Amino acid sequence: MKEIKTADLCDRFSSTEHFQIAEPMFQIFGGKRAFGGQIATLKVFEDNVLVQETLKKPGNDKVLVIDGGGSHRCALLGDNLARRAMDNGWSGLVIYGCIRDSAAINQMPIGIRALHTHPLKSHKRGLGERDVLITFAGVNFRSGHFLYADEDGIIVSQQSLI
Fold this sequence. Notes:
Strand 9 (134-136) and strand 10 form a beta hairpin. This protein has helices at residues 6-13, 49-55, 79-87, 102-105, and strands spanning 19-21, 27-29, 35-43, 63-67, 75-77, 92-99, 111-117, 129-130, 134-136, 139-141, 146-150, 153-157. The protein is built from four helices and twelve strands. The protein is an alpha/beta fold. The protein has a single domain (6-157), classed as Glucose Oxidase, domain 1 (3-Layer(bba) Sandwich), CATH 3.50.30.40.
């Protein structure tokens, strides 16, 4: 994928009617500062079983967007799952929730955006939904749409911009 610069994409495509910009609420994790690709979505709450199952599959340069309900009570991703995502070809992850093992994740060549860190692992009930419309940070995320992230922010488009 070409170099991603969200400011340049905004300048070029901001008049597109299916263009959205996420509210600036995410922290940057991982060694890959910019990433993008087609979106796959998960909706879970304090339970990362579906996250584990999804990251076992080939990512094909997609971005996994996880609606964790904005919970600050546990982490949905740690260094083992981040490594699995990287090894299986996921471009990056956006998590409306927390991660843990941030020091190790920051050494990995993967892009991750999350609200915060939390040392406690999540529950393991297997509850949640895949490939559903999820909404947070003022953006509607749909599987099959495209997401681009860098140090300046996150943008989402119905069509590929790169």
